[in-house]
């Protein structure tokens, strides 16, 4: 299932003409993971359309099978999950390997905490470096027991609670993964689970739980957003339509903004307001970015996004916006490097615990290509060239798909090609990325290095 262990170096160069056309990107990764997990907990058969068939989501599909659900692929993006009901997952016979996926690992901890079973979970070298105490600590209050490696890292073992207690928890960091893990455990608990988040984070879990018939109440209070879930609902299987991933669309739109003469439309992009911080920032930067055909599909706002090449202005991105664009900072940094003036992105501590330390790796990506970037505390400051990007460097991607894609987009817009040491991890979230970018360019601008 995982891509080959051999590193796959790629190089991107500037195409002869601007990028063009109307394109689609693969399904939303956050919604895809949840569709498989909630489908496995529902009574009946959930039909999913537009599922992201990236490695991260395929790890979730495999884990759900190991836990007793029937998960089948019917055709491209079309999947069917026969669920076991809340509390009905069965003990896995072997280790659950979540690959490169923080979302899969953390949400699964919540699911496992609520089931009276024993399980062991691991991941690849990147995931085994990422903090898991942020979920295991609150989840222990359900009555589940977790054993982790030193420092709260994977591999971990869990014995789920026989009669899980509902959690009352205030998130110390803005994290949809932690929130979702707590809510998933709360599904199996008797009574009301109450989670308070200091700042709103993506709410796909809340939306999809409602879609399956759970009672979820959300209130904005002076202390933050409070989410209440009534435990032990009967989740009823319901069809799910997965929109295109805005975090993937970001790379096509960024390329269009950066390569002279470009105009690109990405159709059918999810526009949940808790995911669109990058698009708000780009508008502040003066980007020519428009939404057409705005509609609601499968309970999520969706639209077609068009970006046209044009000048960008440096801005200050406030820390409160981070949750709504948390995965978009590496590509925003590339855009900022081409803007007039400086861009300061504030409050990025969470970037240090992604697939790589994205804060330092993003700064290093720019520095390797003759650009100015510095880190002050938790802020990233990028000096814009006001136009030309020099390129010419090789970027270390540290098992991080977003760094690989950001660097390749930079190469499409740079005077000299940009190489990445390993593009293999792009398969985790955006299978077919290089081929799709080349179809925008009308030539093989991204190729083996
Ligand atoms: O809940 C989710 O689906 C995700 C939440 C975010 O992580 P955090 O919750 O750790 O911020 C994001 O970075 C990740 O790509 C997907
Ligand atoms: C942070 C990401 O994913 P995850 O946490 O699921 O590994 C991402 O896709 O950028």
Question: Tags for this entry?
Answer:
amino-acid biosynthesis, UDP-n-acetylglucosamine1-carboxyvinyl-transferase, Chain, alpha/beta, binds shikimate-3-phosphate, 449 residues, 3-phosphoshikimate 1-carboxyvinyltransferase activity, 26 strands, four-stranded mixed sheet, 12 helices, binds phosphoenolpyruvate
How would you sum up this structure, described in words?
Its main location: cytoplasm. GO terms for molecular function: 3-phosphoshikimate 1-carboxyvinyltransferase activity. Residues 18-434 form the Enolpyruvate transferase domain. The chain has 449 residues and is an alpha/beta fold. It folds into 2 domains: 10-27 and 243-448, Alpha-beta prism (UDP-n-acetylglucosamine1-carboxyvinyl-transferase, Chain); 29-241, Enolpyruvate transferase domain (UDP-n-acetylglucosamine1-carboxyvinyl-transferase, Chain). 28% of the residues lie in helices and 27% in strands. It has 12 helices and 26 strands. It has helices at residues 29-41, 55-66, 102-113, 133-140, 176-187, 204-211, 246-258, 277-284, 329-337, 358-367, 401-412, 433-441, and strands at 10-12, 20-23, 45-49, 70-75, 78-82, 96-97, 118-122, 145-149, 153-159, 168-170, 192-197, 216-221, 224-230, 240-241, 263-270, 288-297, 300-308, 316-317, 342-345, 372-376, 379-383, 389-391, 394-395, 414-416, 418-420, 446-448. The strands form 7 sheets. It has a 4-stranded mixed β-sheet with strand order 23-25-1-26. Strands 2-15-17-16 form a 4-stranded mixed β-sheet. A 4-stranded mixed β-sheet has the order 4-5-3-14, with helices on one face. α3 (102-113) runs parallel beside α4 and α9 runs parallel beside α10 (358-367). The longest helix is centred in the N-terminal third of the chain and has 13 residues, at 29-41. It is globular. The relative contact order is 0.15.
